[in-house]
Amino acid sequence: MSPAGRIASLLPSATEIVCALGLEDHLVGVSHSCDRPPAIRSKPRLTRPRFPLDGLSSGEIDAAVRQALREFGGVYEVDSERLAAVGPDLLLTQGVCEVCAVPTRDAEAAALTLISGPTVLALDAHDIAGVLATIRLVGRAGGVAERAERCVRDIERRIASAHARVEGRPVVRVLALEWLDPPFVPGHWVPEMIALAGGTLLCGVAGRPSFAVEWADLAGLCPDVLLVMPCGFDLAAARTDARRHGASLRAVAPRAIRSARAYAVDATTHFSRPGPRVADGVELLAALLHPDLFPEVSIEGRAHPVGD
Fold first, then answer.
1. Which end of the chain offers a freer environment for a tag, N or C, measured as fewer CB atoms within 10 Å?
2. Of 69, 100, 124, which residue constitutes the final position of a domain?
3. In terms of domains, do 108 and 191 share one?
4. 98 and 178 share a domain?
């Protein structure tokens, strides 16, 4: 694939990959939710949600998503005028989750209308190997394949180092929740991250989408550690939602909460985006599950005990 000149990214993880590979100057537009690194926040916004997101609870967002799917067939839309104005050569999109970002089919439809005739590249990671593959894919598309390989090797080195430190330790039983109303348990790369950090996930399937459960389904699991990680929520929003559903959390994870091993986490930074910061997420998990082994890893601003 020939090097791309002008890159448009329709999802945050792709934007983070582009910048991690030193291609920030080629980035001509980003999605409405792209916010890292901070320097890209002045870039043109090429997508928008079909309903206001700010300040909504997980239950309110769930209801709004369902309504948008019924009425429009999608949660987000491409700003065709802005996309045409930036004229990308490469358009980065995804097919992993229709409620997380503009899906591939909408990006492809928008690309067909553009004079620039961009290549559409879908980044569809379902596990950590897939995350690393998307970094290599963007690197090849941007003409920086060697730089991408160095980035991948560094992520692999950091994950392997964290995993080596927890090997041989008793495995920690973990209940992780990617949404609270209704409750969802994690899939895709998150169960693998938990395993690499020395935990065993009590509910959820690696490499598959997250899925909804009933609170009653989680009764009796009594995990050692509870992780509240609502998809797309930062730490403040996760803490607020955890407080809102405190009674349900106490019912399914009484021991974890009593022992101060229940945490709300910054999911946006560490778990929701399949990009370069996957290593940060594994290191944070290792510190939460085995704090005596990772005294140098700060959780400040990244995780906070539920109930505080």
1. C
2. 124
3. no
4. no
b (16+ CB within 10 A) / e for 111-131: beebebebebbbbebbbbebb
Asked if residue 152 belongs to a domain, the reply is no
What is the C-alpha separation between 97 and 210, in angstroms, rounded?
Answer: 10
Q: Residue 207 and residue 211: Cα distance in Å, rounded?
A: 12
Separation between Cα atoms, residue 106 and residue 271, nearest integer Å: 25
**Residue 76 is part of a domain; what is its CATH number?**
3.40.50.1980
Q: Can you read off the two tokens belonging to residue 120?
A: 């559409």
Domain count, the chain: 2
Report residue 234 as tokens. Answer: 């930062």
Q: Is residue 185 included in any domain, yes or no?
A: yes
Using an 8 Å Cβ cutoff, are 135 and 275 in contact?
yes
Clarify whether residues 282 and 174 are in a common domain. yes
Question: CA 129, 132, 134, 136 torsion: positive or negative?
Answer: negative
Give the burial class of 261: count Cβ atoms within 10 A of its Cβ; 0-12 exposed, 13-18 middle, 19 or more buried: buried
In the structure encoding, which two tokens stand for residue 48, read together? 């928008």
- 89 lies in some domain: yes
In a domain, 161, yes or no: no
The amino acid at residue 169 is R
> Which tens digits make up the pLDDT trace of 36-60?
999 999 999 999 998 887 788 899 9
- Contact at 8 Å (CB) between 76 and 10? no
Q: What is the pTM (predicted TM-score) of this model?
A: 0.94
Helices 145-166 and 278-289 sit at what angle, rounded to 10 degrees?
Answer: 10
- Tell me how far apart the alpha carbons of residues 293 and 119 are, in angstroms, rounded to a whole number: 46
Grade residue 72 by pLDDT with cuts at 50, 70 and 90: confident
Provide, for the chain, the percentages of residues in helix, strand and coil under a 3-state DSSP scheme, each rounded to the nearest 5: 45, 20, 40
User: Where in the sequence is the domain holding 34, given as residue range(s)?
Assistant: 7-124
